Amino acid sequence: MERKKKEKVLVTGGAGFIGSHIVDLLIQQGYELIIIDDLSSGKKENINPQARFYQININDSALQEVFNMVKPDYVCHQAAQISVSYSVAHPRSDAQVNIVGLLSLLEIAFKNKVKGFVFASSGGTVYGEQQTFPITENSPLHPASPYGISKMTSEFYLNFFYQTHRLNYISLRYGNVFGPRQDPSGEAGVVAIFIGKMLKGETPTINGDGEYIRDYVYVKDVARACLLSIKNMVELAELKKIKRLNQAFQAVNIGTGRGVSVNQLYSYLQDILGFPQEAHYGPPRVGDLRKNILDSHLAEQVLGWKAQYGLAEGLRETAQWLKQIEQLN
To answer: From CA 12, how far away is CA 10, in angstroms rounded?
Structure first.
């Protein structure tokens, strides 16, 4: 009996925090994986040895050669400039990576007839300040930072490529993703930053008054959303064609629907790690929203996705991973 050919998925940013978890899950599910990563923020130790790895930038002309060689069925685009504060200081650089890089990838993807494109958007930034919570996909888009603007713009380009070239896609608007492999020394990722400092006996600094509210979603839940997007891509495209679903299905929120303040988060981590010191407080960061909570009922409807990890469970797993990293170092 002839064995079914494995479908190939190309993951940009596959050596990074979220991308590497997606790669691991897809390999477990029987897909053949190709990783594109320039290792500017990704790490070699995150690369699954069962995946093919190419160290190139998504704006590199060599990207076309990789597509010609591997002929992926799907693309899961995670590579990005991820820091809101960096985007505020360097909007041109942010756009070069997040907008121009996406366009390079889309042009190559449709020429190579990929079956579907999964895009890592940002439910934490594209909506901007809202009055009604939790936020649905039909809420107006008012990004307050160049990073959020780049994600919103990317979604418009994705829709253009769908309308013009019938490149099937889905945008996953992530909440505040946290979990193992997040860089505790980076600018983004408050959970990893706080845990990293606490493990070293250093007192973390909270920006502003600590009442900034976020929807924290665990990275393994995010990886599962990508898997389900790939599994349902063809069916979703057919539903779109016969208008059983509205325009919004091509962008779905990936969050928990629960808001947690930075002060609450700090308190949870104090309990988990037995850290007695209270936080320092510094000035608020430019571009940070006061409140962001995502309604993910549409993801449940069209993908069968719902967050499975609670915040406390995810924080414990993240703390355990960072403890192991500290011990190794």
So the answer is: 7
State both tokens at 133: 């919570």
User: Residue 258: left if φ>0, alpha if ψ -120 to 50, beta else—which one?
Assistant: beta
Distance (Å, whole) CA 43 – CA 14: 9
CATH superfamily, domain at 8-328: NAD(P)-binding Rossmann-like Domain (3.40.50.720)
Using a pLDDT cut of 70, give the percent of the chain over it.
94
Active-site residue, selected from the candidate residues 54, 74, 127, 147: 147
Q: Is 147 in the active site?
A: yes
At residue 192, the 3 state secondary structure works out as helix
Give per-residue pLDDT as tens, 27-37: 999 999 999 99
Rg of the chain taking only CA atoms, in angstroms: 19
pLDDT for 1 beyond 50: no
Amino acid identity of residue 310, one-letter, is: G
16, 76, 91, 183, 300 from 228: Cα distances, Å: 20, 12, 33, 26, 10
Locate 10 and state its tokens: 């190309």
Question: Domain map of the chain by residue range?
Answer: 8-328
The answer to whether residue 245 scores a pLDDT higher than 90 is no
Residue whose tokens read 């930053």 = 193
The phi, psi pair for 62, rounded to 5°, reads -70, -15
Side chain identity, residue 48: N
